[in-house]
Amino acid sequence: MKILIINSYPEDSAEKLQRYVESISAFSQYVILRDSEIHAGIDLDGISACVLTGSPKMITEGEYSPDYVDFLCTTSLPILGICYGHQLLAIAWNGEVKSGERIQRVFLENPLVVTIRQPHPLFAGLAERIEVDEDHREYVVPPERGGGSFSVLAHSPSCEVEAIAHHSKPQYGTQFHLERSGGTGRRILGNFCRLAAAEEKRLSS
């Protein structure tokens, strides 16, 4: 199994990217491409799934590549989008992203409590309420108000849409930073890798 990490961080953010590498390498091989390299026709032979990183870029200010969004609209690969990546998935799925006050909760100091709204394999083995790391200004609007072909899996007091799942594809997003959320984050990432492996097996059978 090999995961493509799609990196949306600036060049000087190696430490943040390293968190993803450390988390993913515990479950899978990986390769890294910058989001500027991604487009709908890209050859991803040998890639089992994609993880989309966070970013300081602002979607509401148009700071994203249309080619990247086209890829997200058309690919059937399993995807896990985190923070900025989660918001980009919502855009690709005809949802809406808005900007608000900055929410910053550090996992080791003052974690955010997120409530899982419905059972889902992405959260297998976790309690109904989990503690996570969160840092964002923009947020996904619930689909009943903003549209979009996705379901809301989790919410928190500060954000109505903490996790999403596409209606028909094995693609998911979390507003919180699971790569900075200790054992909880590792559990979610491991669950995603199992979902991706199951999808790969289904397609090859």
UniProtKB/TrEMBL annotation:
<dbReference type="GO" id="GO:0005829">
    <property type="term" value="C:cytosol"/>
</dbReference>
<feature type="domain" description="Glutamine amidotransferase">
    <location>
        <begin position="37"/>
        <end position="192"/>
    </location>
</feature>
<keyword id="KW-0658">Purine biosynthesis</keyword>
<protein>
    <recommendedName>
        <fullName>Glutamine amidotransferase domain-containing protein</fullName>
    </recommendedName>
</protein>
<dbReference type="GO" id="GO:0003921">
    <property type="term" value="F:GMP synthase activity"/>
</dbReference>
<dbReference type="InterPro" id="IPR017926">
    <property type="entry name" value="GATASE"/>
</dbReference>
<dbReference type="InterPro" id="IPR029062">
    <property type="entry name" value="Class_I_gatase-like"/>
</dbReference>
<dbReference type="Pfam" id="PF00117">
    <property type="entry name" value="GATase"/>
</dbReference>
<keyword id="KW-0436">Ligase</keyword>
<keyword id="KW-0067">ATP-binding</keyword>
<keyword id="KW-0332">GMP biosynthesis</keyword>
<keyword id="KW-0547">Nucleotide-binding</keyword>
<dbReference type="GO" id="GO:0005524">
    <property type="term" value="F:ATP binding"/>
</dbReference>
